[in-house]
């Protein structure tokens, strides 16, 4: 068995600062003569080739991350990483690296432990701090080297941050930057770039407060324009001052809020556009920068939320008909960004935020905006609506139910959403997909509330099916008036597929309402018209819809399907598909297989009406099995005595208690036959058993009679022999003729006067019709002994109930004894 502890993936860092996977293998460590030292070796698990051969250099900085990752640099621009499958393997190799370098394995970065004595380290920790060189042009190179050397050690990093903070060093550096820029001192500007970048990596909030202040932030961005790796400096400041414009859709009077918005935009720009992608050693060194932006956004949302005048003006202008289109577009975009910022809030603060928007009338405002013609404005409004639905669908449902009492169906908010979904002009229906997801959330009973006073599920679903469902299903009904879809282009088919997906969801989750709607509006018939579509995905959606309905095993649906012969379009689609082995073929066969196993009523309907069309399909056994199941059902209906006997034999098969058998036999033989009244059936308790001899005796006699009977049948009827699991005892005609069965002549051994079941017995009045015996065979065995394997438990219970409901459910062993 392969040792998974040593299983690793090898990664290298490419020029775009992205990790490339070099392969998976197993790592080991050992002395390599060629490299003159202990090395890490990784051999590929596929072919054993060498993926990595790296000498453990005593001066190389190795870093362990997340318990299963070891990272290091072999050259200036060549970073390597080993990702282990198990922590134990990572720890094992890490100990080997630390052993070679003489380090303590408890550290996460081998270079953290500097080569100095404990006394020197103690002195270093207790010293007042790091001494920075004077902030002068000729000392910038020394300062850049000091910053670079301090970053790998957390202790020295902390001391450097304190020194920069306490001496007001950042403002001095920015003065030097302005001087260097005026003098076009490119070397000094390159050193300043490295210094400022290093200060960012110190990851200290107090330094960020200084760097991002109004008077410093643009100079900080200027320092970061002069990357030594680039031939020409960037023009970030020009973009921020000339290209990027601050839009005030509603005047912001609070200067602190204005300054916070400007600062957040610029810091976000620095993070996204100015700073280089952090290397693997720097990935955790900018966490404070992320936090700075996050808390700024929280503060902005809180300040805007508290400014009631601002929000009142915002919603007033949004809904004012006099507001011009450009202004409204900006207002909606602002509200969209405002809601996006709210996602940074803690749950309790987000609750208060959306409650404030609700009180301000955001839903009526959205209703007005969604009714406008501007596509961009409607798109932004849809995004805002999605925030509301995802946050609190119950709030949206309550609003639409209240407005339905005052407005017509056409202008209800949900109907506007449905109309936009239907009328989406995007060829790929991107907006329609988003809106369908929102509708699905709104009609999902899983997120509906139920209280003592009201049930949201009942109220909302009643509202939805009364006021909205006809709007949703309108394109489906309009396109399926004929035997084929009237419009079958790609975009229409995509839309109908979306509608069907939502209706299928309703079938699964809205049992009562959707059932009434489907049956009353004959929806399934219309849906099955789509099986004739040229687009396979739409035909499969229609099949999936029917399959979900059948899967409910609801007899209301089943009767509706049988009454309207709704399997006909499915069978047409199956036959038109021909012998192609595709998803359509598999989906239809799976549906019939499910019916065969689980739905008796539909099994009979299919065989009686469509067998001629399906009987030649022999590359799967589904349809032959369907017919066999039908024949078994008919046999049980026509032969209740055999049915009850099979149930009793089945019970005997599983329970054998010797003492019970002996007691029962003794009680039976002690019973005086004369004490029985004519026609009285003596039936043992259902939980008593018979011995195997009692059971086999009548079966043996029956077998003998059966052999004679079969010989007669061959002569008289000239039937060809049947094999496999087909039933030789009767033949069904599917043109409406009645079923014929083979009759057994009365046997003197089994039908003596006074025997239950004999024509002269008073107890046999219910069976005065000509006696018939129909026996199912399976591989040459009589069905009385080996009943069909695919009988399910439900059928067994029904068989037992049917057997008990008949007038004379006597087992054959008792009949044999009575007649003897």
TrEMBL record:
- All copies of the Serine/threonine-protein phosphatase 4 regulatory subunit 3-like central domain together span 143-632
**Where is region (Disordered) located?**
670-693, 710-820
| The family this protein is said to belong to | Belongs to the SMEK family.
Pfam families of this UniProt entry? EVH1_PP4R3, PP4R3
Q: Which gene encodes it?
A: smek1
Biological process per Gene Ontology, one example term: DNA damage response
Organism this protein belongs to: Sander lucioperca
Quote the cellular component terms of the Gene Ontology held in the record: nucleoplasm; protein phosphatase 4 complex
Instruction: Point to the regions of Low complexity compositional bias.
Output: 729-755, 764-785
Entry protein name: Serine/threonine-protein phosphatase 4 regulatory subunit 3
């Amino acid at each position: 068995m392969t040792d998974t502890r040593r299983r690793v993936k090898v990664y290298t860092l490419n020029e775009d600062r992205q990790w490339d996977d070099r392969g998976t293998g197993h790592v080991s460590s050992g002395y390599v003569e060629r490299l003159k030292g202990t090395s890490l070796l990784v051999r590929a698990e596929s072919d054993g080739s060498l993926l990595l051969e790296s000498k453990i250099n005593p001066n190389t900085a190795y870093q362990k991350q997340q318990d299963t990752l070891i990272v290091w640099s072999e050259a200036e621009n060549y970073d390597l990483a080993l990702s282990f499958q198990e922590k134990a393997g990572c720890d094992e190799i890490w100990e080997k690296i630390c052993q070679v370098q003489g380090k303590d394995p408890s550290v996460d970065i081998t270079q953290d432990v500097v080569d100095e004595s404990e006394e020197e380290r103690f002195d270093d920790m207790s010293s007042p701090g790091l001494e920075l060189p004077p902030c002068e042009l000729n000392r910038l190179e020394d300062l850049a080297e000091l910053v670079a050397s301090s970053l790998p050690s957390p202790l020295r990093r902390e001391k450097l941050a304190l020194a920069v903070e306490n001496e007001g060093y950042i403002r001095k550096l920015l003065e030097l930057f302005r001087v260097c820029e005026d003098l076009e001192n490119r070397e000094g500007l390159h050193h300043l770039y490295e210094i400022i970048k290093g200060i960012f990596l110190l990851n200290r909030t107090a330094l960020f407060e200084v760097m991002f202040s109004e008077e410093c932030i643009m100079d900080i961005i200027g320092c970061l324009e002069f990357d030594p790796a680039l031939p020409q400096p960037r023009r970030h400041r020009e973009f921020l001052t000339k290209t990027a414009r601050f839009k005030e859709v509603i005047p912001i009077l609070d200067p602190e809020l204005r300054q916070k918005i400007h600062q957040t935009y610029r810091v976000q720009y620095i993070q996204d556009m100015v700073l280089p992608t952090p290397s693997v050693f720097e990935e955790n060194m900018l966490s404070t920068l992320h936090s700075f932006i996050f808390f700024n956004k929280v503060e902005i949302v809180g300040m805007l939320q508290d400014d009631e005048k601002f929000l009142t003006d915002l919603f007033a202008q949004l809904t004012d008909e006099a507001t011009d289109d450009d202004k409204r577009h900006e207002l909606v975009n602002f509200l969209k960004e405002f809601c996006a910022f709210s996602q940074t809030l803690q749950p309790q603060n987000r609750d208060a935020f959306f409650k404030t928007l609700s009180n301000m009338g955001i839903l009526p405002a959205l209703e007005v905006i969604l009714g406008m013609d501007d596509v961009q404005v409607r798109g932004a409004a849809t995004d805002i609506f999605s925030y509301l639905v995802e946050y609190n669908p119950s709030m949206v449902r309550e609003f639409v139910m209240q407005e339905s009492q005052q407005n017509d169906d056409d202008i209800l908010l949900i109907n506007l959403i449905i109309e936009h979904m239907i009328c989406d002009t995007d060829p790929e229906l991107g907006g329609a997909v988003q809106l369908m997801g929102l509708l699905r959330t709104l009609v999902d009973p899983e997120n509906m509330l139920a209280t003592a006073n009201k049930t949201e599920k009942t109220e909302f679903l009643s509202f939805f099916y009364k006021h909205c469902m006809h709007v949703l299903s309108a394109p489906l009904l309009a396109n399926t008036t004929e035997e084929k879809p009237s419009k079958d282009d790609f975009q229409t088919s995509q839309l109908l597929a979306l509608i069907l997906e939502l209706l299928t969801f309703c079938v699964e989750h809205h049992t009562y309402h959707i059932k009434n709607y489907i049956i009353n509006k004959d929806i399934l018939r219309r849906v099955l018209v789509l099986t004739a579509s040229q687009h396979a995905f739409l035909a499969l959606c229609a099949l999936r819809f029917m399959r979900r309905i059948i899967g409910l095993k609801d007899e209301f649906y089943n009767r509706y399907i049988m009454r309207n012969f709704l399997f006909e379009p499915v069978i047409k689609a199956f036959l038109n598909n021909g012998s192609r082995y595709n998803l359509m073929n598999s989906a239809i066969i799976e549906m019939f297989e499910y019916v065969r196993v689980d739905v008796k009523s539909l099994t009979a309907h299919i065989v009686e009406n469509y067998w001629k069309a399906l009987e030649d399909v022999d590359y799967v056994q589904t349809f032959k099995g369907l017919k066999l199941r039908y024949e078994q059902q008919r046999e049980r209906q026509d032969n209740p005595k055999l049915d009850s006997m099979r149930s009793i034999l089945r019970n005997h098969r599983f329970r054998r208690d010797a003492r019970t058998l002996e007691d029962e036999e003794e009680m039976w033989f002690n019973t005086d036959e004369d004490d029985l009244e004519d026609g009285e059936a003596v039936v043992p308790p259902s939980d008593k058993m018979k011995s195997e001899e009692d059971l086999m005796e009548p079966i043996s006699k029956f077998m003998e009679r059966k052999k004679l009977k079969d010989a007669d049948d061959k002569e008289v009827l000239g039937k060809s022999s049947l094999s496999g699991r087909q039933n030789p005892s009767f033949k069904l005609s599917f043109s409406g003729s009645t079923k014929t069965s083979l009759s057994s002549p009365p046997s003197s051994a089994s039908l003596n006067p006074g025997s239950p079941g004999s024509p002269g017995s008073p107890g046999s009045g219910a069976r005065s019709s000509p006696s018939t015996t129909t026996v199912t065979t399976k591989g040459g065995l009589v069905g009385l002994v080996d009943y069909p394997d695919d009988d399910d438990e439900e059928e067994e219970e029904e068989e037992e109930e049917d057997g008990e409901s008949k007038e004379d459910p006597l087992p054959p062993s008792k009949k044999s004894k009575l007649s003897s």
